[in-house]
Amino acid sequence: MSALISLRKRAQGEKPLAGAKVVGCTHITAQTAVLIETLVALGAQCRWTACNIYSTQNEVAAALAESGVSVFAWKGESEDDFWWCIDRCVNVEGWQANMILDDGGDLTHWVYKKYPSVFKKVRGIVEESVTGVHRLYQLSKAGKLCVPAMNVNDSVTKQKFDNLYCCRESILDGLKRTTDVMFGGKQVVVCGYGEVGKGCCSALKALGAIVCVTEIDPICALQALALIELYNAPEGRYKQDVYLLPKKMDEYVASLHLPNFDAHLTELSDEQAKYMGLNKNGPFKPNYYRYDRCSKTTHHDFDYVQYTHFYCNVV
Ligand SMILES: NC(=O)c1ccc[n+]([C@@H]2O[C@H](COP(=O)([O-])OP(=O)(O)OC[C@H]3O[C@@H](n4cnc5c(N)ncnc54)[C@H](O)[C@@H]3O)[C@@H](O)[C@H]2O)c1
């Protein structure tokens, strides 16, 4: 939030968003209210809706509405309410969005489905979530992405602050409030060992829980060669340049190490693979996935391997 406030101070004189009409779909909390206020201070007009039926802070939504921002959200919406709110946000006479800020892809999906003509005026989509980014890459691959989109999810600051650090804190807050139990000695399964999973494991371990992890990607499960690839590569595949090990081979090598850790790698189901747009045999991560973001936690990860039951996609 402090970064947003300082951006506001630095740029509000210039109004870099003058004329922008932003339709947004995010969690509606005090933190996102600061984002919306900042967009307004930088010159944008905003209409907002919630990306999650549970997370809206009603008092924040009310305060935003009072300040003149059109907000359609409340805590505890039904599924129907959720889509109604998104629709009200987009479908308004005399006002047409020219930017989309989305967290999860539902707003973007709705505009594509119901109001494709809106895209004639939209200059771009900013997407914050893993799921939404995944959908955007699918659209792009199918040649259906009609405006530029910015993948914010995979920026380092988002990955670290939101996914790793924030989830490391909110997992405990959320679980404590809802279950009110002691975590020491409890057995917890964490599904997926990406940034969010790493943060959650770290917090749960610190409370003394016995943590099991499920993973489908042998590299993430192991966290941890190229000679064979280079030696056997057909002429012309590699020029005089520096290359990364092909992802598939990287994953294969990692998978060979897994038995040493008593880890059991099983396959994605057909349904899961289809949903994620992946081949069941990998590669499991797109090229832009930042494995290097995990390098600082490698020793940590080996601690998990030693002290944590590590399963890969237990079925
Ligand atoms: N504030 C929040 O609540 C918040 C913040 C950020 C992300 N998220 C959500 O958390 C989730 C994870 O985000 P991330 O940044 O860690 O993503 P990530 O892609 O870095 O990690 C997800 C991991 O899950 C693994 N995986 C996928 N399918 C699996 C399966 N069937 N079984 C076991 N493992 C599987 C993948 O291989 C990957 O390593 C996403 O759904 C994201 O939208 C929530």
Structure notes:
This protein has 315 residues and is an alpha/beta fold. Helices cover 44% and strands 12% of the residues. It is built from 13 helices and nine strands. It has helices at 2-11, 30-41, 58-66, 79-90, 106-114, 130-141, 156-179, 195-206, 218-222, 226-232, 247-257, 270-276, 298-307; strands spanning 21-26, 45-50, 70-72, 99-102, 124-127, 149-151, 187-191, 210-214, 309-310. It has a six-stranded parallel beta sheet with strand order 3-2-1-4-5-6, sandwiched between helices. The protein has a three-stranded parallel beta sheet with strand order 7-8-9, covered by helices on one side. 29% of the residues are buried. Bound molecules: nicotinamide-adenine-dinucleotide. Nicotinamide-adenine-dinucleotide binds at residues 129-131, 162-163, 166-167, 191-197, 214-217, 220, 268, 272, 284, 313.
